[in-house]
Amino acid sequence: MTPYKLVVFDWDGTLMDSLSRIVHSMQQAAVDLGLEPRTSHQVHDIIGLALDLAISRLYPALSVHGIAQMHERYAHHYVTGDQSPSPFYEGVPELLQQLHQANVLLSVATGKSRKGLDRILQAHQVEPLFHSTRCADETKSKPEPDMLLEILDYHKLRRDQAVMIGDTEFDLEMARRAGVDAVGVTWGAHDVQRLRRHDPKACVDTVIQLAGWLANPVHA
Question: What is the CATH number of domain 19-80?
Answer without folding.
Answer: 1.10.150
